[in-house]
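Q: Convert this sequence to structure tokens.
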Amino acid sequence: MNPHANYPLSLFSMISSIRNNWQLEWQFIKREVIGRYRGSMLGITWSFFHPMVMLLVYTFVFSIVFQARMGGINESRVDFALSLFIGMIIHGFFSECINRSPRLIVSNKAYVKKVVFPLEILPLKVVGSALFHSLVSLVVWVMFYLLAHHTIHWTAIFYPLIFLPFLIFTLGVTWVLVSIGVYLRDISHLTGVISTMLLFLSPVFYSPSVLPEPYRSFIYLNPLTFFIEQSRDVLIRGITPDWYLLMLVTLASILIAWVGYAWFQVTRKGFADVL
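A:
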């Protein structure tokens, strides 16, 4: 395959590539998840322990030490922890994807130089691995919620409709960062700073309602805010999603994914020259 050839850029080609290579994508994701815990005593069980430990630490620091609250009436520490955990799931998924993206091609040079390979599906390995950990965290959240409240809101069935556009949006960002990481190696340091900033600039540890009005408008410019708050609505507050806004966000997410895919396809022609 000519590394300088023109690659398809259309939305249809993006969907077709993902659909046609799903078996290869599944093998990459499975190998990535299993490989991360290979050699450890507890193995993949660590994927359950990590979110639980972080939940306990954050809950202690913010609800006990700093007396933080989400703004709900008669909110208990358990309710705060459950709300906080929803924010951690959303932020954790996005953070894992953007932090691992810049080094993805550099650490898989063989796929660029020696093998005829659909390189555009490689970022799905990162997104799929992050999705697995998010699903594990969601299972942990459901367990804690059922222990505390013995039932769960019926509106929880809408959660996949909220997470799907978030996944699509993150995939688009991942394609861009994977490409930039080949040409600009320092981007991996920048993404670490950005993910830390987003942890505190997103409503993970607080609700936007507790902020003064000027800052509340600013926090909604953060794309994670919509997904965190809509997730809390359907999982904790028992409120159905804002369907009109969700439709707009879904369309915007598809557009961002398409732009990210097209950017990757255009810039990949120079990968072999740089690596």
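The CA atoms of residues 202 and 221 lie 10 Å apart.
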